[in-house]
Amino acid sequence: MRSKDRLADRRTILLVEDALTTRCILEQFFTRAGCDVLQAADPDTALLRLKSGVDAVILDLRLGDRSGLEVLEQLRLEERYADLPVVILTGVLQVEPAEEEIIQRHGAHLLYKHYGYKEVVGRLQQIINTKAGQLDPSDRARRVA
Fold first, then answer.
1. How far is it, in rounded angstroms, from Cα 86 to Cα 89?
2. Which of 60, 103, 125, 139 sits a CA distance of 20 to 30 A from 94?
3. From CA 135, how far away is CA 137, in angstroms rounded?
């Protein structure tokens, strides 16, 4: 990976994804981008690992029979996580309006897996470095060929 693709400072990312293959692939991309990666396959483990101290959370929208939005809502209840960058990652083609409302209300960012892993890492870099509230709406609709 080129040096410009690396995060400016070494960051710790909590990667919450129930699909083992996807989790391992994302871990490789984030590690190459200069991140330390903590993994969780379910909401309970994610909330425990969060206490280790992380710079950002990548959270799958659908975690088996549970929702990643549960984790988002629970972590936002704690003041210390109020500004923690959270990226909701999903493989669905379009999220439900109620889900998108929850994501926006909690200041998280929505990215689709079909963007491609390199794009997800690049977007995370932008989010962490700027700690912005929301991505430009035109970015949300953009798809990577």
1. 9
2. 125
3. 6
CB 65 within 8 A of CB 37: no
What is the Cα–Cα distance from 88 to 112, expressed in whole angstroms?
8
User: How confident is the model over 14-38, as pLDDT tens digits?
Assistant: 999 999 998 998 899 889 888 899 9
Q: What structural domains does the chain harbor?
A: 3-141 (3.40.50.2300)
Query: In this predicted model, what pLDDT tens digit does every residue of 46-82 receive, in sequence order?
Result: 999 998 889 999 999 998 888 899 999 999 999 999 9
Q: What is the dihedral of CA 42, 47, 50, 51, to 10 degrees?
A: -140
d(Cα 36, Cα 10) in Å, to the nearest integer?
7
Nearest partner of 94 among 31, 141, 45, 127, judged by Cα:
141
b vs e for 83-102, b when ≥16 Cβ sit within 10 Å of the residue's Cβ? ebbbbbbbeeeebeeebeeb
